[in-house]
Amino acid sequence: ASTGNADQVGFILRGNKNQKVLIRGTENSNFDPTITLIKQIGQELVASNANREDAIGMPKPLPKATDAGLLVELPITAYIATIIDSDSNEDGKAVFSIMTRK
Question: pLDDT (tens digit, 9 = 90+) per residue, 59-71?
Fold first, then answer.
């Protein structure tokens, strides 16, 4: 698991099978987060989300309408998740968390 206020977080999935990964961006001081997930090798877009109504695969609704989330099953490799403000394209003003799920 990784949390922080960074605009970009890299992570590597290890093991011998796909893993479910939960990525959340929670609004902080009028920041409307958009999450983008790409494979580090080849820079291939995996998924993107800008609000709870369009949150992909989330087990329950996100607390605020402007929160962003992804629950995706990913193959073992390296990834980069970025978070920006949907309105201003600025970074680093939201709480960003990444964790694997069983």
Answer: 666 667 677 888 8
How far apart CA 75 and CA 48 sit, in angstroms, is 17
CB 70 within 8 A of CB 35: yes
Instruction: Name which of 38, 30, 100 is nearest 65 in CA terms.
Output: 30
Three-state SS annotation for 23-87: EEEECCCCCCEEEEEEECCCCCEEEEECCHHHCECCCCCCCCCCCEEEEEEECCCEEEEEEEECC
Note the pLDDT tens digit of each residue in 33-83: 788 899 999 999 999 887 766 666 666 666 676 778 888 899 999 999 888
